[in-house]
Amino acid sequence: MTAAAAPNPAPEPQDRRHRRTMRTRAAIEAAALKLFAEQGFAHTTVEQIAEAADIAPRTFFRHFPSKDAVLFGDQNREAERMREVLATRPAGEHPMRSLAAALLDAAERAELDRAQHLMRAELLDSLENAGDYEMHLIKQRSVQDMAGLVAQRSGAGTDDPHTVAWSIILMSCFGSAMHSWLVCTDGTPLREILAQVLDETAGGLAQAADVVGSAIKDAG
Questions:
Q1: What pTM did the predictor assign?
Q2: Which one, out of 15, 136, 140, 163, has a CA that is 20 to 30 A from the CA of 214?
């Protein structure tokens, strides 16, 4: 009598798979940052990170394209997450409202890993100019990614002056809020700091627009 074939295992639920992925990423980041701090970024290999995180090197590369992505942040992943959030926003919503919602999501995710972000910031500060060029490129890439998202929501081109200006403003606000959050010790949530920075920036821009508008009117 032929034995019945064993049934295929049920697929892992998506939320459970997501949690497992996040735990693995967190373990890789923790192991990598610890090794970077102990023996230096240049002297740390992917193989050492994988061993410390108790994973295979191929598993590391499923989560990060390189060790640089652990230290400087995975820009591709962040851009993809923002696109996912934007896909849930109302079609007719103003692009700045949609993008602010995406930044709020990024802030809430950052709050879950404050210790990791703080360690990363301290490590970058200790590198003594190493990584300055990389950070410049990353900031430039972040603005370019944001410009692409703005263009997607507004229908304008990525070289449109509004697209470029909005992108620089939003990323500058988020960067400023992140810096303040990492140095503050009163426990203020990043999302609250971000909201305050955006509000004060919007007020300042409105004042600047009034001055420029009045000058143009007077000149005419």
A1: 0.72
A2: 163
